[in-house]
Amino acid sequence: AAKGSGRGQFQFFSREMNAATHERLLLESRLWQALEQQEFELYLQPQIDLASGAVIGAEALLRWHHPELGTVGPDRFIPIAEESGLILPLGEWVLQRAIGLLGHWQTIGLGHLRLAVNLSARQCQGHALPAQLDRLLAATGADPELLELEITESAAMQDPEHSRALLQQLRARGISVAIDDFGTGYSSLSYLKLFELDRIKIDRGFVKDIETDPNDAAIVSATIGLAHALGLEVIAEGVETAAQADFLRAHRCDEAQGYLFARPMPAADFERAAGATLDGPARECLVLS
Ligand code: C2E
Ligand code: MG
Ligand code: MG
Ligand code: MG
């Protein structure tokens, strides 16, 4: 009987694995083509100033419109792109599109908005990034002060000395740097004094149970205090309820981002919503569809 159930289990797992492998193969086989076929799109999620409720900018979040699988989120294909090396051309496409948007915003009255872009660990290695950014900024006339680059602490800590020099080069150009998913990378806090930073992004994992879990509440309020004491700003991600926003506002968190305010959306929708908020309160105008 034990043998029988063992075999059944093996078959169960192997069927699951086949489904996962099948999806992976579907994604992997088209990934390189997808860039040429223009199947990628940058969605934008508004970032809100908690004190005033105003939209101060957005985070660019990559989507893949796969012909068979529909719209696929980055958690499913970024790891494959990292392994296959496509992340470098894909990351460059993201930067080109994002910096292009910043340039466009200057011409449509949205020249005050900041745009945050996620960097993968691979993009931070080597020495290509600063020249790439210089080229894209010069080509579009975008203001580097309105570009923010997000890097996770684990990516930054793969080679701390290299990252320190890279972040210094970015800051010398006026580009902002945010540490993404703060507190999830199992690294010590010592990098906070090693790196020149502008902002800390509190991970959704700490925000989720902020009202019910005293440990999460303590971690979030201590992180806000730590950031401010170091002269850094703080943004909380994954804010879904008014109570979470109230807690963050009461603890002087600077900015927030999450489904409470708006989900990631196509650039045209963001531009319409952000344009509309020029004559009204942010929240009301960002309740979409
Ligand atoms: P991230 O940078 O931490 O982005 C935040 C993620 O949380 C996004 O998931 C966003 O859609 C989601 N989110 C925002 N507000 C809420 C909320 O209130 N509730 C919940 N449940 N989720 C919320 P998404 O778009 O699936 O992106 C996942 C990750 O993929 C990102 O995490 C980032 O690490 C990576 N990523 C996205 N775009 C890019 C890119 O262009 N390049 C690179 N290298 N990585 C990217
Ligand atoms: Mg991010
Ligand atoms: Mg994050
Ligand atoms: Mg996160």
From TrEMBL:
Residues 24-278 form the EAL domain. It is found in: Cell membrane. This is EAL domain-containing protein.
